[in-house]
Amino acid sequence: MDISQLVITKELTKTEKEYAGKQAHVELANKMKKRDAGTAPKLGDRVPYVIVAAAKGTPAFQKAEDPIYVLENNIPIDANYYLENQLSKPLVRIFEPILGEKTESVLLREYYVTLYILSSILYY
């Protein structure tokens, strides 16, 4: 799978202390600064990231990682995150007016089939 299709980008518009809560792009910028301050994103830059697999319950802001770093280090992507947050929730919003209360159960059935297929592609 082409990882570029999974990249999320957010602009660093404030300093870390000015953000109300933990943000994925801000946390990643800090990680990147520790690795190499010269190439780390700076205020005003867009920060590209992907969400990588981690222990269950790990917040998304801790799972954000530089796509190039992911490729170089063979880090697995969190397929479940993308299915739930980038695909399932928007689809529920689209189909709820049509399918009503059964929207989630219909989509969840398809979700688990898709999750199985994507997991086999991403992890093997």
Q: How would you describe the overall organization of this protein?
A:
- It is built from 5 helices and 3 strands, in the order E-H-E-H-E-H-H-H.
- It has 124 residues and is mainly alpha-helical.
- The protein has 2 domains: 3-72, Orthogonal Bundle (Topoisomerase I, Chain A, domain 4); 79-123, no CATH class.
- Helix 4 (79-99) packs antiparallel against helix 5 (103-123).
- The chain has helices spanning 24-35, 60-63, 67-72, 79-99, 103-123, and strands spanning 8-11, 46-51, 64-65.
- The chain is globular, with a radius of gyration of 17 Å.
- The model has no long low-confidence stretch (mean pLDDT 85).
- Strands 1-2-3 form a 3-stranded antiparallel sheet.
Structural class determined from secondary elements: mainly alpha
| Cα separation of the termini | 11 Å
Average pLDDT metric:
85
Total number of helices: 5
Side-by-side strand order of the widest sheet: 1-2-3
* Percent in strands: 5-15%
Number of structural units classed as domains: 2
**What's the CATH architecture of the largest domain?**
Orthogonal Bundle
Helix content: 40-55%
Assembly annotation: single chain
Largest sheet: 3 strands, antiparallel
**Quick one: CATH superfamily of the largest domain?**
B family DNA polymerase, thumb domain
In the predicted model, the low-confidence regions spanning at least 5 consecutive residues are none
Look up the CATH topology of the largest domain.
Answer: Topoisomerase I, Chain A, domain 4
One letter per element, helices H and strands E, the order comes to EHEHEHHH
Using the alpha-carbon principal axes, give the shape: globular
How many strand segments?
3
Assign the CATH class of the largest domain: Mainly Alpha
